[in-house]
Amino acid sequence: MQEILEEILIKAAAGDMEAFENIYKITSGFVYNVALQITNNKEETKELTRKVFLKIHKNLKKFRFASSFRTWIYRMAVNAAINTSKKRSRESSRKPGYEEGFLYDSLTESLKQRLDKKKNENLVRLLLDSLRPVERACLVLRDMQGLSYKEISDTLGIDINTVRSRLGRTREALLKTVKKEVI
Which of 17, 53, 79, 102 lies at 20 to 30 Å from 44 by C-alpha? Predict the structure, then answer.
């Protein structure tokens, strides 16, 4: 994600809609992708992204530059996605149309490549579904978004050692799940 100038943030916080629109253009794809990787649901993620930006708009004047704006947005997106995932898991085990988030079909790929890709996507989805939302968030932020342990700690508001241990346990659990699937 491209860095946003402090003056744009200040203008947006003061109510400048053009500045806020600029922030939205720069960060909306980023927020959507982070949320999608945690929720695994396109429709839910679209709504969640809208809610995150409403929250950003409402709270931008409270941003004090104590952390980076990127970390602040990560925190909002991840927390919203975790809460949405928890709510969904309480309401039902799975919604229809769930596969939309991972399925991608290209006309130029051979049938074998498409089947292999679908099989891998199903395995990734199965593995991510086996995790609790907070575990999934740590894994997504580290292995898919490339955040450092410190950035994850700041984003999730947890101790850096908790991040390390949570990632270690999560990776071990995933290895066990993969071994079960292979057997």
Answer: 17
116 inside domain: yes
User: What are the structure tokens assigned to 81, written together?
Assistant: 């996605």
Q: According to DSSP H, which parts of the chain are helical?
A: 6-13, 17-39, 42-59, 69-91, 111-129, 133-139, 149-156, 160-182
- CATH code at position 79: 1.10.1740.10
Residue 21 domain-assigned (yes or no): yes
Which of 174, 166, 175 is closest to 141 using CA atoms? 166
What distance in Å separates the CA atoms of residue 173 and residue 3, rounded to the nearest whole number? 35
Report yes or no on 1 lying in a domain. Answer: no
Give me the percent of the chain exceeding a pLDDT of 90: 31
For residue 119, is it within any domain? Answer: yes
Angstrom distance (rounded) from CA 140 to CA 152: 10
Q: What is the pLDDT of residues 139-165, one digit of tens each?
A: 888 888 888 999 899 888 899 999 999
What gap in Å lies between CA 46 and CA 94, rounded to an integer? 18
Sign of CA dihedral 103, 24, 85, 46: negative
Give the C-alpha separation, 93 to 137, whole Å: 19
Q: Which of 139, 159, 20 is nearest to 81 (CA)?
A: 139
